């Protein structure tokens, strides 16, 4: 036998033809790439025209004619071609060709695999089952052979994998499971794969990532989870993947990143996060990625990039921020990088697509300067102040101290709830406050003394429309989604007394702050008054729901996963009339909306029990809804 036949593959077709005998006597060369692997192989191919052949649903014949002087034992590679309706896969392959190294059955409408179908193939190392209709893999399919290096079973109908499928596959390097319907994977499914370098899980139905999947995958270089339904990246999720070079998470539903989501990925070079729903990047989220070269965050909901986001990324050369909502970026953001390609088209500002670092910095600076100028004139949400006192039994707020507060006025000039200005036409309040029609509500901005109608800087605004969150249900005890947006008929004119507050996002470091400031016109301790005439403020501790319920178990009845508790429990707190007002937290001179006053327990004296805690709508769960809410044209 010639030496070339010992290393070449014989390409066979599986069919039932009408009396035809096909000889395998045409030599071909083939070259392709799968994952990180390049394959260059010569083989003998059995040609069979699909126009002449008539295929049945079951394999009934294998043509074993390989040319003069060659036996079945010399066959190393068998392939079933497209349109060959091979419904099942049995041990007939390995019985006839015991020295097989490669089996490729692609697009053959294969539906099932016998558990012992590979038991006689002791040398098999490549298994390709792409583009079939396989719904289930037998748990012991691979147990008789520990030489597999490539296993591709993409584009099938799998929903899960057996827990022990890869039990002895210590040599497997390339695993492709994409384009299935996988919605669950056992925690230890990949643990035996200590040499795995490539793992594709694209286009499945995974809703979360389990860090246990990656415990022993220290040699993994490429991980792709694109096109699933993943909504968040857990803390230190990829910590075991110390040699990972490429991570693809695009086309998911990721909203939240934690500051340590990518810890441990010190060798990562490419990170793809495009086409998600990311609205904010936590400070330091990429700090562990010292070798990052390319970052794609396009088609998300980002509004800003922190100036120190890439301080440790000296090798970063390409950043894609297209199709976001970014207003401006401080040009210092790329000072410590090697960025030569920055894409920022289709943003609120900086329509930038440049491949030269000096031009990038110049364009960023121009855009940033223009943005700052506009902010100073009309959009600043950074007003420094010092809040003190209490709403019940506290001191008054100085005028202009909190220029975002709104007073909602009903017919006959009656104050009934508070609100918070967040943009030129949007005011946030509580859903339970919306008991009047839009045309019957007036929003007072720049107001200090409610009864002083000629107050300088005070302006009334008509309400064009009211948008109550679709999850709000006034017929239940639970105050879940107690939030509404009023859209004003005209744009607000900003002044020193009228400014919007900043919105914060779930991943912001401010979310961990455990104290906020509540401001409102609610009852101030005088049982004879329905509400205060002048706004008052209070510093309130923010509590986890569990601590809240320990203080008073009745609060559990009115709370939900989208609320939090606030209060000191010492006779001070928010009260009747404060509903819809904001609880804010500070970051330097800037204030951010953290919650909306929702509910308090009753008290016979004051009307609210300030010896316990109050319930606030957690704004972190509703920022996307607020931002996506359309604003009607001004008539």
TrEMBL record:
<keyword id="KW-0645">Protease</keyword>
<keyword id="KW-0720">Serine protease</keyword>
<feature type="domain" description="Peptidase S1">
    <location>
        <begin position="391"/>
        <end position="631"/>
    </location>
</feature>
<keyword id="KW-1015">Disulfide bond</keyword>
<dbReference type="InterPro" id="IPR050333">
    <property type="entry name" value="SLRP"/>
</dbReference>
<feature type="signal peptide">
    <location>
        <begin position="1"/>
        <end position="19"/>
    </location>
</feature>
<keyword id="KW-0433">Leucine-rich repeat</keyword>
<dbReference type="InterPro" id="IPR001611">
    <property type="entry name" value="Leu-rich_rpt"/>
</dbReference>
<keyword id="KW-0378">Hydrolase</keyword>
<dbReference type="GO" id="GO:0006508">
    <property type="term" value="P:proteolysis"/>
</dbReference>
<dbReference type="GO" id="GO:0004252">
    <property type="term" value="F:serine-type endopeptidase activity"/>
</dbReference>
<keyword id="KW-0677">Repeat</keyword>
<dbReference type="Pfam" id="PF13855">
    <property type="entry name" value="LRR_8"/>
</dbReference>
<dbReference type="InterPro" id="IPR009003">
    <property type="entry name" value="Peptidase_S1_PA"/>
</dbReference>
<dbReference type="InterPro" id="IPR001314">
    <property type="entry name" value="Peptidase_S1A"/>
</dbReference>
<dbReference type="InterPro" id="IPR003591">
    <property type="entry name" value="Leu-rich_rpt_typical-subtyp"/>
</dbReference>
<keyword id="KW-0732">Signal</keyword>
<keyword id="KW-0964">Secreted</keyword>
<dbReference type="GO" id="GO:0005615">
    <property type="term" value="C:extracellular space"/>
</dbReference>
<dbReference type="InterPro" id="IPR018114">
    <property type="entry name" value="TRYPSIN_HIS"/>
</dbReference>
<comment type="similarity">
    <text>Belongs to the peptidase S1 family. CLIP subfamily.</text>
</comment>
<dbReference type="InterPro" id="IPR032675">
    <property type="entry name" value="LRR_dom_sf"/>
</dbReference>
<dbReference type="InterPro" id="IPR043504">
    <property type="entry name" value="Peptidase_S1_PA_chymotrypsin"/>
</dbReference>
<protein>
    <recommendedName>
        <fullName>Peptidase S1 domain-containing protein</fullName>
    </recommendedName>
</protein>
<dbReference type="InterPro" id="IPR001254">
    <property type="entry name" value="Trypsin_dom"/>
</dbReference>
<dbReference type="Pfam" id="PF00089">
    <property type="entry name" value="Trypsin"/>
</dbReference>
<keyword id="KW-0865">Zymogen</keyword>
